[in-house]
Amino acid sequence: MKRIYHSLSVFLLIAGTSANYAVAQKDTTKLNQSVEVVKAYRPTISNANKVNLMPVVDDTTRFIPEFKYSIDSQPVKSGFEALPIGAANVNKLPSDNLGLGYLKLGAGTYSTPYGELFLNLPKSKIGTFGFHFRHLSSDDKIRLRSGDLVNAPYSQNNGAIFGSVNIGSTILSVDLTYKRDAMNYYGYPDVIPTNIASLPITTFGLEQFYQSGDIKVTLKNNDLSQSALKFDGGFHLGFFDAKTGQKENSGGFFGKLDYNFGQVTGTLDFALDHLSTDSILFQNPISIGTLTEDWLRVKPSVRFDGDKWTLRGGINFVAVSDKSGENSTKIYPDIEFDFRPIEEVITLYAGFGGDLVNNSYGDIAMKNYWAEPFHNVRKSDYTYVVTGGLKGKISREISYNLGLKYSQIKDLYFFLLSSYDDPTSKSVPASLVYRNAFDVIYADAGIFNLSIWFSYLLGKDLSIVLKGNYYNYNLESLPFAPHKPNFDLTASAGLKIIERLTGFVDLEVLGQRKAVVFHVDALSSAMPQTVAFQIDPSIKLNLGATYKLTNSFSLFGRVDNLLNRQNEQWLGYAGQGLRLMAGVTWSF
Q: Which residue of 297, 361, 426, 456 is 20 to 30 Å from 368, comparing CA positions?
C-alpha cells in the first residue's frame, strides 16, 4: 500500500505541471471471422484474444474481407474479460460477393460522419494486394451520471495496406497498418465543480491522441506445399506515441517451424523482441525514465494424434532482460489434450500452462484511453492456467462450447481514480476534487471463469450467436476487482427479412461493477482512504438493416443504444445515448 501511496503522490505532482492530456470512446471494430472447425479444439494460453471489457462506440457496418480459414490471435494482455459481440465483429449471414471492394459513406446523430474504403484484389499466380481505410468521428455532448452535459468529441482513423508475392513454393507477405484516435478527458464521477478549470492537478477537458503504426514481413510455405517441414516467420517494426509525450518503439523476429515425423508432429515457436518506452514511472527509486526490455520466447512441443484423441506437450520458456537489471527467466508447462468420443458431436478438452505477459505501455493506453500518462508498467505472471470443457454440435444447425478456466496471476493490473481536498474550499471538511485520469494498480489474483457459447445457423435466412460468462475474482490486496463484472452476456442475430432486405439485432449486458477511488492527502503520511463507487449494469441494444437497391448500391441504417442508457465505460465516463445512422454502400 505504501508503494501505491508514493506512486499516487508522484502522479499528482507530475500532473500539476503537465498539460494536454485526454481520451474518449474506443472503437471495437475487430474482425471475427468465425468458421466451424470440425477438427479437435486446441485451447491455448498465450494465444487468447485480447478483448475490451467496456461498452464503446460500434462501427457502422460489418466489414466483409477476403475470408481465411484461420484465427488471428493475440497474447493475453490483462486477464479474462467480457467478449462483447458488436455489430461490426460478428460474422452474420453469408453475403453476396462484393467484388473487388466497396465504398461506404454515412452520417448520424451526435454529429457523426463515417467513411470506409476497402479494396481486395483477387488472388492470382503472382500474389495479392489490398487496402482498407476508415474514418469515424463525433463532435457532440454527453450527459454524465451527475447530470452534467460535457463535450466529448473523438475521431478514429484506421489504415491498412497488405499484399503478398508468390516465390516458388513460398509466400512473401507485407502488412502495413496505421491508427490514430483523438479524444479528451470528459468524464467525472460526481458533480463537476464550477471552478474546475482553475484547480490544480486536474485533467478535465484536456486533449489527447494516440497513434500507432506497424510493419510486418512474413515468409511462409505455400499452403499447397507437401514438404514435411513447414515454416512461417519474419520480422516486425512498430511505434506508439501520445500527445502527452510518451513514445514506444518495438521490433523483433518471430517464427514457427512444424515438422511431420509421421505419427508425431514437432513444433517450435520462437520470438525475439525489443521494446523501448519513455516516460515510464519507476518505483525504486521513484523517478520518470525510459524502460528498455528484450524478450525471448521459445516454445518447443510435440503432438501425438490418435483416432479420437490428440495430445500436445511442451514448455514455454520466457526470458526478459532490461537495463535496470530486473531480469526474469520463466519456464511454464504447455500441455493440451482433447478426446472426441463422438466425432463432430462431442469434444472434451483440457489444458495446463502459463505465461509471462508483456503489459506494454501501448496496450494499457489502448485498453483505457483515460489512463494516467505517467503510469507504471509491469509484467503479469500467469503462474498457471487450467482449462477444460466440451464443445461440439447438437445438430447440423446448432454448435456449442462450454468451458471452465482458472488462472493464478501475479501483478494483474487494474484501474482506479484518486481524489484530494479542494485547496480553495472554505468548508470543513473541504470538498473533494477528483482526478479523471486513471492510475494503474497491480494485484495478485485468482480468477475462475465459466463460459457458455451457442450458435445457430439456418442457411442464409437466420444466424444467432449467444455467449455468457461468469467470473469470480480472488484478490490479495484489493477487496474486489475494480471495473470487472461478475457476469456478461452477449447475443447477436442476423436475418433475411425479404429478398433484398437483411437486418441484425445485437444485445450486450455487463453486470454491476465497482470502482475504487483513493483519497490522497499530500500533506499527510497516512495511507490513502479507499472509497468504493457502484457502476450500474451496462445494457446495449443495437439494431439495423441493409436494403440492396442494385448489385452495386445498397442503403444501410442502424440504431445504437436503443434503450438510451447512460452506460459508463469507466467510472465517470458515460457513453453516447441513442444514436441513429444511415448511409449508402457502393460495391465495385
A: 297
CB of 276 closer than 8 Å to CB of 294: no
392 occurs within a structural domain: yes
Retrieve residue 342's grid coordinates: 463422438
Identify whether 51 is part of a domain: yes
DSSP secondary structure string for all residues of 238-250: EEEEETTS-EEEE
pLDDT for 394-448, tens place per residue? 999 999 999 999 999 999 999 999 998 888 877 777 788 998 899 999 999 999 9
Q: Beta strand pairing status for 328-342 and 462-475?
A: unpaired
Provide the 3-class DSSP secondary structure of residue 534.
strand
- The gap between the terminal CA atoms of the chain, to the nearest Å, is 60
Q: Is residue 386 part of a domain?
A: yes
Which three-class secondary structure state does DSSP give residue 149?
A: strand
Give how many domains the chain has, as a whole number.
Answer: 1
The pTM of the full predicted model, rounded to 2 decimals, is: 0.81
Whether residue 173 is contained in a domain is answered as yes
**Domain of residue 452, residue span:** 2-61+91-396+416-587
CATH number for the domain harbouring residue 114:
2.40.170.20
> Using CA atoms, how far apart are residues 335 and 329, in angstroms rounded to an integer?
20
Which residues does 17 contact at the CB level (< 8 Å), separation at least 6? Answer: none
